[in-house]
Each structure stands twice: as structure tokens, then as C-alpha cells.
Design brief:
- It is a single chain.
- The protein is mainly beta and about 400 residues long.
- Helices cover about 5% and strands about 40% of the residues.
- It is built from two helices and 34 strands.
- The protein has helices at about 15-20, 55-60, and strands spanning about 40-45, 65-75, 80, 90-100, 110-115, 120-130, 135, 140-150, 155-160, 165-170, 170-175, 185-190, 195-200, 200-205, 210-215, 220-225, 225-230, 235-240, 240-245, 250, 260-265, 275-280, 285, 295, 300-310, 310-315, 320-325, 325-330, 335, 340, 350, 355, 360-365, 370.
- The chain has a 22-stranded parallel beta sheet that branches. A ten-stranded parallel beta sheet has the order 3-5-7-9-12-15-18-21-24-27.
- The protein is elongated, with a radius of gyration of 21 Å.
Length: about 400
């Protein structure tokens, strides 16, 4: 069984602290270049534009068009009625600053994508939905860059049975206003969503889970270089899915005492009752109201081939790792981790090259878990076997005579 340390949750300024962590920038998301319209047509929206509303321009947009939306607030929401085509995305983008789109929203989303595909969204925020922020089901080939959801009563960005998606530089906040009765989560990748990459996002202060992958076998999802913080929790959640990578993230400050920073689970809603081939590496999970990482099975289910490598756990109220039910099969691994709350053991895991306690963090109270010079317990003490080729700062591993233990290479 795991040895769980009871450590009081002492992290207060959560966003300020986690954004100080080098490896996840505190700056605004990097600007992205808007590709020129393939069709040659740019449809303009705003006081000096040819269309009075975003919806009016969207209704006439065709594959290859760009819809250029003036910075400021635009009412009425956006319902997509036309798909782009291979190599001919329809691109919606804010010009001169962020374009904020408000409206009623509802069961189809304030941004209602339906099954429409080959679409790009740049520098746009959808705010104040009475239902979902943005919702797609059965879509494919979608790009969300410098994209925001600010306030929704149900989930924020919800992608169901949707494939080939890039979410890059998003900010999702204040979703799930209905609390535990809300549908879906802040950022939901579910029910058959595959080939999705989520990176450089800030997902914070939401009423349910932060980033959630669920009910998808062969998901081929990667979640990396994000800060997920101050959510009810878990901050990052994988439920009954396979082929998922979670790396180079900061997960901090879950609010609910039953919610960990990162959670792997099998819920009863799942048909497969299986979680398989999940890799968790180079993450920092700290100051959460439950464990740093938890395994939870609601009633029955199997977890197999789970690899937890080169992570740093600190000051989580229920210890670094907690296991709540379920059966383990295959090869499961705990290696090169810093368990600051205390030692971890479990009969169904290969466990080696981990250390407990503080090995010499630079400034843990400020959310900086780099290793100080002279940290002999962690520097060059890790195993090269199954270790990632880079660290949370995206610096190459190893930097010295051997691999360092924890999320950062000195």
C-alpha cells in the first residue's frame, strides 16, 4: 500500500506561484501568424467592416476564406454552418487585439461547431455562455490558437468524437458555473476524440475538471506544456482511455479534497472499464487538496502499462501518489520521481530511482522546483531507462554525467 503523508495545503497565491515555474511561461500565449486566405477572400466584421456581425460573415464564408473580426465585443454567438475543405480552412480571427464574442450559448455552444470541419479560430474569446463555451461533435481538422473561453454554465471547450485537433495557447476559465451538475469539463476531449494536441494553455478557476480525456481507446492525445490550476479538480484527468501522454505540465491547487492534481481513473460510465498505455512525465504537481497523482476506480476496472517517470510532487494534502481501488496489469512504472511528501510503494509497480523529501529545491514556496546546485540526491542519480529526452524546460536530458531525478534537469 502507499504511504500517504498528511501535509497541510499551504499554497495560497496559486496562479502567481505556478506561473513563476520556469518551463511554463508566464507571458501571454505566443502570437500566431494567421495564414492568408486560400480563396483570396477576406470577410471583415466590425464598425468599418462589410458585415455587421460575426454570424453574418460566417453565413457566407466558403472554403479558403478568412473572416477578420475587429477587436472588441461582438454579440450574438457563432453557429458554424459551412465546413472548409482539405487545404482550404475557413479561418476566423481577431484583428488588432482579441475579439470577444458573447451571447446566449446553450446545448450546442456559444461557438456551435456541430460536425463542421477544416476550421481555424485565432485570437478569439467566447464569454458568458449559458451552456457550453464551444462544442463540437463528429468534427475533424480543427485549430484553436490564442483561443479563450471565459465563463460558461456547462463545459468550456468540449470536443466529442472529434479528431485531428490542435489547441495551442488557450485560456479557459470560470466554466462549469452550475458546479457538479454541469455537463462536461473545462476542456473536454471525449467519447472517441482522437489525435488531439493540447499545449501552452492556461486552464484555471473552473468548477469541475480542468483538462479531461475520457472514454476513448487509441486516443493518441498529448497534453503538454500547460498550466492547469485552481480548478475544483482534478486539474488533468484521464478516464477509461488509452494512448495518452501527459508531460511538461504544472498541475496546482485543486480545490476539492477528493481531487488530485493529475488523476487516472475508470468510472462506471465507461463501457471498456479499462485505462491503458498512459505516460506521465516531466510534470510538477503540487499544493493540491488531495494527492499529487491518484489512481481511482469507481467500482471495477483495470489499469495497465502506466508509466510515471521524472515528475516532481510536493505539498499535496494526501501525499504524492494515492490509489483508490482497481486492478493493475501489464508493466507499470514509478521511476525518477521526487516524492517530497514521503516514500511511495505498491506491489503492482516497478519502483526505482525515486527519492522522497526535499532534495534541494530552488524556491518551493514560490513554485520553483528546479534543483539547486549541490543537490546530490537528485542530480545525475536517475535511471536512463524509460527517461524522457528532455525536461520541463524542454532542455535535453541528460545534462551531466547522468539523468537527474524529477521534472527538471539541472
Amino acid at each position: 500500500m502507499f504511504l500517504r503523508s498528511k501535509i497541510a495545503l499551504g499554497v495560497v497565491s496559486i496562479m502567481a506561484a505556478c506561473l513563476l515555474t520556469a518551463g511554463v511561461s508566464s507571458a501571454e500565449p505566443r502570437p500566431h501568424e494567421v495564414p492568408p486566405p486560400v480563396s483570396g477572400r477576406t470577410l471583415t466584421v466590425g464598425p468599418d467592416g462589410e458585415y455587421p456581425t460575426v454570424q453574418a460573415a460566417a453565413d457566407v464564408a466558403r472554403p479558403g476564406d478568412n473572416v477578420q473580426i475587429a477587436a472588441g465585443v461582438h454579440t450574438g454567438g457563432l453557429t458554424i454552418k459551412t465546413s472548409g475543405a482539405p487545404g482550404e480552412y475557413i479561418t476566423f480571427h481577431g484583428e488588432g487585439g482579441t475579439a470577444v464574442i458573447t451571447g446566449q450559448g446553450g446545448s450546442q455552444g456559444l461557438l456551435a461547431l456541430g460536425s463542421h470541419s477544416w476550421l481555424r479560430f485565432h485570437n478569439l474569446t467566447f464569454a458568458g455562455s449559458r451552456g457550453f463555451g464551444a462544442y463540437a461533435s463528429g468534427a475533424h481538422n480543427l485549430v484553436f490558437q490564442d483561443f479563450g473561453i471565459d465563463g460558461s454554465r456547462d463545459g468550456g471547450l468540449v470536443l466529442l468524437n472529434t479528431s485531428d485537433v490542435l489547441v495551442d495557447g488557450c485560456e479557459i476559465q470560470r466554466t462549469n458555473g452550475r458546479g457538479t451538475s454541469a455537463d462536461h469539463e473545462a476542456l473536454t476531449l471525449g467519447h472517441g476524440s482522437r489525435d488531439v494536441e493540447v499545449k501552452h494553455c492556461r486552464v484555471h478557476d473552473n468548477g469541475e475538471e480542468g483538462i479531461d480525456v475520457k472514454y476513448t481507446d487509441n486516443a493518441r492525445v498529448s497534453i503538454h506544456d500547460n498550466v492547469s490550476s485552481n480548478n475544483r479538480g482534478p486539474n488533468i484527468y484521464v478516464d477509461s482511455s488509452s494512448d495518452v501522454e501527459i508531460y511538461n505540465n504544472v498541475a496546482v491547487g485543486t480545490k476539492n479534497e477528493t481531487k488530485s492534481g493529475i488523476a487516472l481513473a475508470v468510472e462506471d460510465v465507461s463501457e471498456s472499464r479499462e485505462l491503458r498505455n498512459v505516460e506521465v512525465y516531466n510534470n510538477v504537481s503540487y499544493g493540491n487538496a488531495q494527492a499529487g497523482l491518484s489512481f481511482w476506480v469507481e467500482s471495477s476496472g483495470t489499469m495497465s502499462d502506466v508509466r510515471i517517470v521524472n515528475n516532481t510532487f510536493h505539498d499535496n494534502a494526501e501525499g504524492s501518489i494515492a490509489v483508490y481501488g482497481g486492478d493493475f496489469e501489464g508493466t507499470n512504472l514509478l521511476r525518477n520521481n521526487i516524492f517530497a511528501e514521503g516514500p511511495v510503494s505498491h506491489d503492482d509497480f516497478v519502483i526505482d530511482h525515486n527519492i522522497s523529501g526535499d532534495p534541494g529545491f530552488a524556491a518551493p514556496d514560490a513554485g520553483d522546483f528546479h534543483l539547486r546546485p549541490g543537490s546530490t540526491r537528485a542530480v545525475d542519480q536517475g535511471s536512463a531507462d524509460s527517461a524522457p529526452a528532455f525536461d520541463l524546460d524542454n532542455k535535453p536530458r541528460p545534462a551531466g554525467a547522468g539523468h537527474d531525478i524529477g521534472a527538471y534537469e539541472q
